[in-house]
């Protein structure tokens, strides 16, 4: 079993990766801007009410999460680049229809709902294909560096795009802001078509199983493999924490600490900068300590960092704000560190023919847990208080670190195992220092 050393060379020398990264970054900025502009279009142009906005959000979740398993199966049947180009162009047409309809006075809530659902579904196909394509664009030893760069741009997009979206809506109107997003998807599609590194061929039509059977096979692969099972369970644990905290964070910040919207926005900005820093450091951390310790340590620090929120004192605005800032500094950077290691490990050990379904299975499991945890967080807060609800969320987050510790991932102190039949089997674990005589990092 070969172990790929984590490369120290700059990933930017890989021109195909630069094109893929640029396409993804442009697409991410556009998507985050639209996430802001679409509700504004509903409110400012159509005078939508709370129920209309709730439907917009619900359809985004349904289109983006619950079609994930189907997206994974189809992505594994096809070449990834055409899927991404089709998703980009489809989103460009859908979003471009909004400013056109607005110009002619024909924009309605039904159109916004349809666009939201279909665009979210296309985004799911794009994201699964994007993460499945990356291991064919970069070498195994470049995966951590590549995912670090992608996480850094995602953090920058999330950090700045809300303000950018609000500015564009105020300056140009919501439909024009959405038109800019439509153009961003066209740019992304053009960049993807310029990637030259060949993809491995998809399975022959004659060898394909029915879609539902392929979905079940993807779920079975995740459930049966000890490393993939641990990665998925730990991801679900982190999303459990996010779900519970997301349900109560604003109430806690405003009612318990006494912060206003502007202060909360500034604190969130600190989190974006912290995530960016974590992404920049992720590759160096994985080289220094190994993928396993980076992943477990990041998950543990993520849970510990979030403990600053329920520990914040009530009524002391300055001190409470400091606690929330500490949470953003520790938890957000740690979450990015663990996410880069997790994504790189999954991409490395899963063969290309199954990667889409494995990614989709993990995403659907994690976001389903987060959705249920959000509801649970609200129920717990109503019954026992905001702090008690967050303590339950913290226990979920800590369980993720424990799951990883008691899995084969704890022994991965070297590079990334290479995809193959024994990528996570006994031979691979022996190569990574697992066994009675294990104790030193593997020789690479």
Explain how this protein is built.
The protein has 444 residues and is an all-alpha fold. The chain has 2 domains: 1-195, MFS general substrate transporter like domains (Growth Hormone, Chain: A), CATH 1.20.1250; 210-433, Growth Hormone, Chain: A (Up-down Bundle). It contains 16 helices and 2 strands. It has a two-stranded antiparallel sheet with strand order 1-2. Helix 6 (143-172) packs antiparallel against helix 7 (174-193). It is globular and about 60 Å long. It starts with a strand and ends in a 13-residue tail after the last helix. Mean pLDDT is 84; it is low at 421-444.
Summarize the structure.
The protein is mostly helical and 444 residues long.
CATH-scheme architecture of the largest domain: Up-down Bundle
| CATH topology label of the largest domain | Growth Hormone, Chain: A
Q: What order do the strands of the largest sheet run in, or round the barrel if closed?
A: 1-2
Main structural class? mainly alpha
Total number of beta strands = 2
What is the strand content?
under 5%
The overall average pLDDT, rounded, is 84
Largest sheet: 2 strands, antiparallel
User: What Rg do the Cα atoms give?
Assistant: 22 Å
Could you name the key traits of this structure?
single chain; mainly alpha; Growth Hormone, Chain: A; 16 helices; 78% helix; globular; disordered C terminus
Set down the secondary structure blueprint.
Blueprint: E1 3-4, H1 15-45, H2 50-65, H3 68-77, H4 80-103, H5 109-137, H6 143-172, H7 174-193, H8 211-224, H9 226-257, H10 261-289, H11 291-306, H12 308-311, H13 317-349, H14 352-384, H15 386-405, E2 416-417, H16 426-431
Antiparallel strand pairs: 1-2
Helix pairs in contact: 1-5, 1-6, 1-7, 2-5, 3-5, 3-8, 3-14, 4-5, 4-7, 5-14, 6-7, 6-10, 6-13, 8-9, 8-14, 9-13, 9-14, 9-15, 10-11, 10-13, 11-13, 11-15, 14-15
